[in-house]
Task: structure prediction
Amino acid sequence: MHVAAYHSQPPPADQGHADPLYTSVGHFLAKACSNTCSTAAQAFAQLVQPTARFQLALDALLPILDSPRSELPQRILVSYILYSLYAPHPITINPFKSVLFDTFVKERSVAIHLAGEGRASDSEQLVWVLWKVLKGDGDHLGPYPPNTLARESLPPKLRAGNLVLDEEKAPLTPTSRDALPLQSDVNQVEGSNLTRDSPVSPEEDENTRRLSQGLTLLLAARERVLTLSEQRLLNPLIPQLTSPSVLTSLDLPPIIAHNPTIATPLLINLLTLPPSDATNAFLDVLAQLPPTLPSFDVLGRLLREMTPTTDSIAGGTVTVADVVRMEVLGPFIQQCILWLDRAEREERDGVTSDDRFAKGVQNLCRFYSALLKLRVVDASSDADSAEIAHFALRNSRFEEANALYSVLAASRF
Result:
């Protein structure tokens, strides 16, 4: 079945307005982009009867996918829905594959053309999503909302010009060459992989696939704990995913909470990039972390990390440990104390009934005691230890706080 033939015939002019189902689908698409792709696809399947899905996709979904004026999250969602309607089967027999492929080629051509002019296409993320779907990895997109996928930055190797599909490795025919928009312009772009007579090598194709899988896992690391095999796959790809970074500072707290072993090398790579506002934002996020075991684990590792980086103020060479010690540790300790004081008040007022306060005090005191043993902080320095000493004294009913205060007090007399 060739969908392009159907797609060339526009739907009846009043059908989208007269049929309540089409109206419902329109409202659904406007609101569903904040849900995960898989949840939205399931909702679409429940909204539309199986016998009506194909025709409705032709009339209501394909025009959205085909129009550059449509919102990017909606185009991403439509791509996933068209894939999901036949997801139990290989993408090769999906009747919408030809339309997905045509859109992929068209949007990639535009992106490469703009790249040749030094500009970026607004549809880079759509090209990557379509590439994932057409490669047979559409299920990797299910856990993420279209809104998230639409605003994710892509590493250079996953930009449109580097994404090639297996079916493109045959020589171009005159008919297929004419079907590619802006082809004459695209062929002039230096280093473009679009022309089929010079496809990427199998090694490059495999590297691109692995990098795409790594990006998917990095997105997943914000939502859940990665398995050991997933961590082993992601770890060696972190340098490519952080230069330039595909993450924002808001992504760090959930990654630290779920995957501290991934967060540590991730932060090391981010903090060794040239100083920028983004680097300062990453440091600010570290200083605001809650007093939890993953936070202490990550901060403790960073405070021992000897990888060289650039001092953002003086411009000299320092280590990651120096930067975290100077820029993060003091504000982090202060924030932990404020967080625990607030937790104590809430416990006293009956707002909470868990043991977060007690556990937090114990973990913070153990963390600071470890820093003393490693000589990261100086027990005799008021600048380093005055605030934590008062905190430990106030909470000396806990064994860990009492032990910490004893060490701090002994160093002063």
